[in-house]
UniProtKB/TrEMBL annotation:
Any single Gene Ontology cellular-component annotation: nucleus
Any Pfam family: zf-PARP
Protein name as annotated: Poly [ADP-ribose] polymerase 1-like
Region Disordered: start-end pairs: 186-234
Key words of the record: Metal-binding, Nucleus, Zinc, Zinc-finger
PANTHER family recorded: BIFUNCTIONAL POLYNUCLEOTIDE PHOSPHATASE/KINASE, BIFUNCTIONAL POLYNUCLEOTIDE PHOSPHATASE_KINASE
GO BP: DNA repair
Keyword field contains Transferase: no
Superkingdom of origin organism: Eukaryota
Biased composition (Basic and acidic residues): 199-213
The keyword Zinc-finger belongs to this UniProt entry's keyword annotation: yes
Species: Pyrus ussuriensis x Pyrus communis
Alphabetized PROSITE patterns for the sequence: ZF_PARP_2
GO molecular function: ATP-dependent polydeoxyribonucleotide 5'-hydroxyl-kinase activity; double-stranded DNA binding; polynucleotide 3'-phosphatase activity; zinc ion binding
């Protein structure tokens, strides 16, 4: 006998086409739009089927989803959309979009395993290969198109104090990748930038010292030349 708990009551995904309509607002759900489906008993076959809605339409109504465990496919959507769903479930109502309290709008970074090799690291300009851990950055209040991707190690060099375990998407990383990222945090020294500035300062001091030495030597040569000329004339 099939376990009734195997099928989750909700399903989330990006619309594969523009053929479905939202059961809440009755408008078409455009292709690649985030949608939430309420799983209901099918009338034409033995099984269940999703009744699709715009995700935003569902999340305008309080307490539609009781737990993130009820949502199939949550880990497969983009991290910023995962955060919207989680925020809705935790608050029991529509997500708060005010900058002061919204976790979604104040989070500017995310971490995930790269699903493709298409993205390029903003820091080193090299490709981020499929299955590599990458960290995204996004200006506050901007949409998904403003995301910039970084190799985890490149990002750590610029932000060594970042608390990676608090980044959205951390929980979905495999344990092996979590350990690898933690190792990166330990490798990046917090005073790396200070050391570079100190070395640069020492170089500048050396250049100044050499320059002053060159001037002194030049003056000594000029004085000796003047004395030689004076002796010859005398």
């Amino acid at each position: 006998m099939e376990n009734p708990q195997a099928q989750k009551p909700w399903k989330v995904e990006y619309a594969k086409s523009s053929r479905s309509s939202c059961k809440t607002c009755k408008s078409p759900i455009e292709k690649e739009t985030l949608r939430l489906g309420k799983m209901v008993q099918a009338t034409q076959f033995d099984g269940v089927m999703p009744m699709w809605n715009h995700a935003d339409c569902i999340m305008k109504i309080s307490n539609q989803i009781k737990s993130t465990d009820e949502v199939e496919g949550l880990e497969l959507i983009r991290w910023e959309d995962q955060q919207k769903v989680r925020s809705y479930v935790q608050s029991g109502g529509p997500p708060d979009t005010s900058p002061a309290t919204s976790e979604f709008t104040t989070k500017e970074c995310g971490i995930e395993v790269s699903p493709t090799s298409r993205a390029t690291c903003k820091q080193c300009s090299q490709k981020i290969l499929k299955t590599e851990v990458r960290i995204s950055t996004k200006p506050e209040g901007q949409g998904p198109r403003s995301l910039a991707w970084n190799h985890a190690n490149c990002f750590m060099e610029l932000s060594p104090s970042i608390e990676v375990e608090k980044l959205p998407g951390w929980e979905t990383l495999p344990v092996s990748d979590q350990e690898a990222v933690r190792a990166l945090v330990k490798k990046v020294p917090s005073n790396a930038g200070t050391k570079r500035r100190k070395d640069a300062g020492d170089d500048q001091k050396s250049k100044v010292a050499r320059s002053e030495g060159d001037v002194s030597t030049s003056r000594d040569v000029s004085v000796r030349s003047a004395c030689d000329v004076g002796d010859k004339l005398g």
